[in-house]
Amino acid sequence: MAQQTANLQSFTNELVKHIEELREQRKEMDDSIRQEEATKRELQVQAAALEHKIVALDESLEHMAQRRDEIDTTLREADEAFAKIIESTQSLLHFVKRGE
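Structure (tokenized):
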């Protein structure tokens, strides 16, 4: 009977040791989870800030593209007007030379 009691005590001690190890593992896991959740929250804040910047950049790019298109139209119209002026000047010069 003494042997059984000793065996039971040994098993009990081993069981308590494993339970304590599991509790320590759980505590470490809980700490890791809290740390990763904090990292996740920080990344979510950064992602939201980046998304806001992307939206602002999209709006800015759209405005700049519209302005560029307006400038292209103005340049095209100016080139056409200048070509007409050159043509008129050449016609005038030709007319004046004939009159000499």
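The chain is about 100% helix and 0% strand. The mean pLDDT is 94.
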